[in-house]
Inverse folding.
């Protein structure tokens, strides 16, 4: 049991460190993505993590791509807030708090 916990914790930390390196550059977006990743790796049952991880990766890529465009970046903060509000409701079922 302790060995599994240590491996899970190590994986979660490695994942969060990698995510931190892939920041979008918009504080609201980066904050939500960090919390979303922590939720996925620590609260979502293992059988469902791949689905949530895929969604997280797609969201991160879309936001990072948008942040490269000055016009899109100007509205990205509100888009991140809207997406975060929607996902918070879904993730609350897994006891994820934001």
């Amino acid at each position: 049991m302790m060995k599994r916990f240590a491996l899970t914790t190590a994986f979660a930390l490695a994942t969060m460190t990698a995510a931190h390196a892939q920041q979008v550059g918009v504080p609201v977006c980066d904050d939500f993505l960090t919390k979303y990743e922590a939720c996925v790796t620590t609260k979502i049952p293992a059988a469902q993590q791949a689905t949530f991880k895929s969604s997280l990766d797609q969201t991160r890529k879309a936001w990072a791509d948008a942040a490269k465009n000055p016009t899109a970046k100007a509205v990205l903060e509100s888009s991140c807030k809207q997406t975060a509000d929607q996902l918070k409701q879904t993730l609350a079922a897994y006891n994820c708090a934001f």
Summary: The radius of gyration is 14 Å. The chain has one domain: 2-92.
